[in-house]
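Just curious. Protein, please.
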Amino acid sequence: MAAIGLTRSQWHLLVYVIRLQSPTQTQLAEALDIARPSVGTLIDHLETTGYVSRVRDAGDRRVWRIIPTRLAIQRAEEFARAAERVASQAFDSVARNDLTKATALLLTISDNLKS
């Protein structure tokens, strides 16, 4: 992601902003499983670089929604291609069965930690 000017964390947050369609900072923190202040720092950077904007929630003026800018939407396809290249490289020599087992194991560990 450095080639497109974003850190992995910034890119990850941006993906969730686009997927969740105008999430709040709290929703992003929960989705990414990181602290709200950390999400705030990532949002600040993405806002400075023109990828997201903060907009007041129409139903609750205390809440800010995070929305992707036109730039982010225009570059979304580029981001997806870059992510696909990274994933292809990372999982190139991993058998599908091994990947399925690893995914199941990681989900189990994550569930155990949540309970």
